[in-house]
Amino acid sequence: MDSVALIVIDMQEAFLKAMPGRERLVRRCRFALGAAGLLGMRAAFTAQLPEKLGPVLPALTEAAGAGAPVFAKTAFSALDAPGLRDWLAEESIDHLVLAGLETSICVCQTALAATDSDFAVTVLTDCVGGRRAEDGRAVLSHLAAAACHPLPSETVFYSILGGADHPAFREFTQLVKIHADPHE
User: Fold this and answer.
1) How many angstroms separate the CA atoms of 127 and 113, rounded?
2) Which of 25, 65, 67, 69 has the lowest tally of Cβ within 10 angstroms?
């Protein structure tokens, strides 16, 4: 996990209030942040114009724990947030795991910019969202064709665990239960 980072994009109240399935998206992002922390994956956030649109949702920054940086941005690609590329270089990150908003705008532009900059990219399909689901589906297909890996978060984190003999397996399965959708 030394070279992998979870980047949570623009999970701010101003955007979330317009999102269908907001509660599920927040719950899945909290799960991803908890799993990342458990497995030693660093996390960072971006916030679009936070001075006007507000901070990243506190429930998410708290889930990441102390030390997860927040990078303010005006561009749609998170990689254009001042300081983010420097942080990625300092941390020797070469694989980005993406979550956040909106799939068809900031997540898409971040993923494409990252692949153009030779990062491996995984998009957590259950941890991204947007106002129109059909746009998100089209974008995830496009990103798959562009060498990104759109996958559900449990698929990604169970793959990292590798098996039930992993020392974090029990704690991870508790995270899965805590953050499960009560309607599934």
Assistant:
1) 19
2) 67
Q: 12 and 48 in contact (C-beta within 8 Å)?
A: yes
| Cα(64)–Cα(95) distance, integer angstroms | 18
Q: Identify which of 92-96, 128-132, 174-178 has the greatest average pLDDT.
A: 92-96
Distance between CA atoms of residues 81 and 75, nearest Å: 7
Q: How far, in Å, are 42, 73, 110, 121 from residue 149 at the CA level?
A: 19, 25, 13, 6
Dihedral sign, CA of 24, 25, 31, 34?
negative
Q: Is the domain 4-178 a CATH 3.30.230.10 member?
A: no
One-letter amino acid of 94: D
pLDDT one-digit tens code per residue, 130-177 = 998 889 999 999 999 999 999 999 999 999 999 999 999 999 999 999
What does pTM read for this prediction? 0.96
- For 69, other C-beta atoms within 10 Å of its C-beta total 15
Phi-psi category of residue 28: left, alpha or beta, with phi > 0 → left and psi -120 to 50 → alpha: alpha
DSSP 3-state percent helix, strand, coil across the chain (nearest 5): 50, 20, 30
